[in-house]
Amino acid sequence: MATAIVSKHFLAGLKDLELAKCSISSQTISSRQSVHIFHHRYQSCSLSMNGCQGDPRVPVGTIETRTFPAVASPAFATDSLNLAISNLKANPPPFTSGIIRLQVPIQQRIEAIDWLHAQHQLLPRCFFSCRSRRKDDGHLFTDFTNGNGHAHVHNLVSVAGVGSAVLFRHIHQFSYSDWKSIKRFLSAKCPLIRAYGAIRFDAMANISSEWESFGSFYFIVPQVEFDELEGSSILAVTIAWDNALSWTWEQAIDALQLTMNQVSSTIVKLGKEVARTLILSNNQIPNKTYWDLALKRALQIIKRSSSPLIKVVLARSSEVVTATDIDPIAWLACLQIYLQVEGENAYQFCLQPPNAPAFIGNTPEQLFHRKWLGVSSEALAGTRARGQSKALDLQIERDLLSSPKDHLEFTIVRDSIRRKLEAICNRVVMEPKKAIRKFPRVQHLYAQLAGTLRSEDDEFDILSSLHPTPAVCGFPTEEARLLIAETEVLDRGMYAGPVGWFGGGESEFAVGIRSALVEKGLGALIYAGTGIVEGSDPSLEWDELELKTSQFTKFLKLEVPSREKIENLGRIN
Hints:
Elements: H1 8-11, H2 15-36, E1 43-44, E2 49-50, E3 63-67, H3 74-90, E4 97-106, H4 112-117, E5 122-123, E6 125-129, E7 141-145, E8 151-170, H5 176-183, E9 195-199, E10 217-229, E11 233-242, H6 249-260, E12 279-285, H7 288-303, E13 311-322, H8 328-342, E14 347-352, E15 358-363, E16 366-371, E17 374-385, H9 390-402, H10 404-424, E18 425-430, E19 435-438, E20 442-453, H11 459-466, E21 474-475, H12 477-487, E22 498-502, E23 506-511, E24 515-519, E25 523-532, H13 538-556, H14 563-572
Parallel strand pairs: 1-5, 2-8, 3-4
Antiparallel strand pairs: 4-11, 6-8, 6-14, 7-8, 8-10, 9-10, 9-22, 10-11, 12-13, 13-21, 13-25, 14-15, 15-24, 16-17, 16-23, 17-20, 18-20, 19-20, 22-23, 24-25
Family: Belongs to the isochorismate synthase family.
EC number: 5.4.4.2
Domain Chorismate-utilising enzyme C-terminal: 291-548
């Protein structure tokens, strides 16, 4: 674990900090072992090939999307796809490798998250909800034909998938070769064939047991996918095969049929609340004592004239163990409903490999969005709570805009992103340069940046250059990363890493903050971080962590039980 690797020079002369960390580490290891030995109660779809093992220089034989006539319901769509799969099985394509998507439009809008919840916890599974789009954002709309040659344009709202037609996973750092291996199965001619997944915050850190199944990165092209559009839906299946990877057409289509036999067409809308449950334990990793010591040490380093460090972001996980299971999809659905009511412009996501917890999140921060050669990113930093009245909210906004500490933190993030874009793009514009972006519980300083890539192959450079941003790591990047590795007593895993999807002519990634790792039978690890710059106050930064994690805990209506309640619970069991 990353908690076992501590730089001696960093802790020299700080005996209290070292003792605090040892205490936290022993507690953390114990809690992680409980994750590792837990017996999972999920159903796994059939295995598929790992696309990272192929030769990225060799194109696949065919990449196709076939659209069938629109139907009235998911049940009819399932029947249509099963018939199409049978016909395809009887008439196999003449290629040794390829990927084919079969899709059926549905003449009603059904929420993708409701469909995913109906799939009896089939794994692997994924979910990605796009930000709300302005109707004039023409490049964000998706074309498909209804099988009769008539084109329709719809805005893709969210995507849910189960099974993997092809997966991409490895324990080594995500590389250009891995990116090419993913792009090998994608084409601009088939815009809805996409690879959904996430990348670790720090590939050089040791992987702890709860993140083991994710590897250093984990992406899937779903076997069965449900696309929620503005006014309609699509049910789709994807078959991928490559004889060179010992995954033949026959194996791929048999695996798809097995998955389709487990897919449900009965969809019930999720409720608006997660059932009340008791907290059996709620541990902060690190605790407040260690946090204060670590933050003060970071401030000492930042203030040194000999140190280049200007900012570092330190994270905390809240380990919540509950009396009853937390359903990660129901939890995420509550966030979605809350956001729809409040009009928030954020991403929601879920990624869960087989035999692993679910990584879910509601992140306000975009890493980048690419459409052809156009690329956009944004800077988000500085945090305040929302006011209970319009007047108070405006006063808090003015305080945030005029705060020297928050201005410093924000300009570090904004200018770093601008410089990285200018190194790759022909032209970069920034508008607005500094504004407020409001969310239901918090508000941030915000700027948007856009540029034009010289080549679509520069997409990998954009990803590897922008991540990690100063908003989740610090500045300069390498100095901040080293201090994080020396200081933090948790494995961030995919928290604060890139989360999103690659497509043929378009890709979009968010930053995996405001997120949690949810395990059936265990509870959740809720992650949050805060930026430390000169002038930061340890107590105020701790309060900011509480504010950020509250968006999860508020839906659970959690309460810490008394000793009497715990004893009664024990007698019942």
